[in-house]
Amino acid sequence: MRLLTPEGNFDPTRRTIATSLFFAGYASAAVSSCASPVTTPSDELIVEDVHIPGFNNYRLPAYVARPSSAGRKGAIIVVNEIFGIHDYIKDVCRRFAREGYGAIAPDYFDRAGDPAPMTDFNAIREIVGAATYSQVMGDTSGAIDWLKAQSFVNDDAIGITGFCWGGTVVWMAAAHLTNIKAGVAWYGRLVSPEPGGFANEAGRQWPYDVAALIEAPVLGLYAGEDQGIPLQTVESMRAGLAAADNPTGSEIVVYPGVHHGFHADYRDSYNAEAAADGWARALAWFRQHGVR
């Protein structure tokens, strides 16, 4: 496995590559010995670690990749899985940058720790569980504000995408945050977990609960063999969107025969065909809805 270290022009007040704000490799708990992770080069890109205003004025770390060319561009907020900001998430940012976007991945888990190098799932879940709904929405709002203040961003063309835990965040942001133009949610939970289940935060809502409130068009990309997101919950979300007359035109695509995490090229659940199709759909969705 070859790990690509991001390169770019760094402000001297920020950490250098050698002391990056983020774990440089892949999530230890999930990496597959047979995986062949995609590595996207950073030449002709500007790649940097920054801090943005998070919830309650927290100084939140974030990873940014963008084209080095001049001019304002559409921007994508990339929301991580439960493993935090490791190289797969950073690589996704660089992929968007190579498509002409500015991309930012906020470190939603920074207050509680870094799950990326961990192998103990209980410890990972404790960190993830500390990121409350209010905090996550506040951090996402802070990312929007930071992007709007940048000279390289077209502030009327901000999208959001996320994977697993981050896929849920996409649906919720599309329902509750202004300035989101469009979203792409990869296999994010749609309904509340069972009582006592992981991430079952008291009183919080889930995508199905806010189907009628979604204001930005969301493309949901889901796996037909996902053991954690049964297809009946996907159908429930479709029904919820239809009952609300689905004014945004949000859609859900299900890939038969593939498993949760099919886009994560460092995991054994990776499915190259579904991942490529989903990525093409994601890019087309953003461009169709003005994120460009």
Automatic annotation (TrEMBL):
Its EC number is 3.1.1.45. Coiled coil: none annotated. It holds the Pfam family DLH. InterPro entries: AB_hydrolase_fold, Dienelactn_hydro, Dienelactone_hydrolase-like. Signal peptide: none annotated. Keywords: Hydrolase. One of its GO terms (molecular function) is carboxymethylenebutenolidase activity. PROSITE patterns: PROKAR_LIPOPROTEIN (PS51257). The keyword Hydrolase applies. Residues 61-289 form the Dienelactone hydrolase domain. This is Carboxymethylenebutenolidase. It comes from Terricaulis silvestris. The gene is clcD_2.
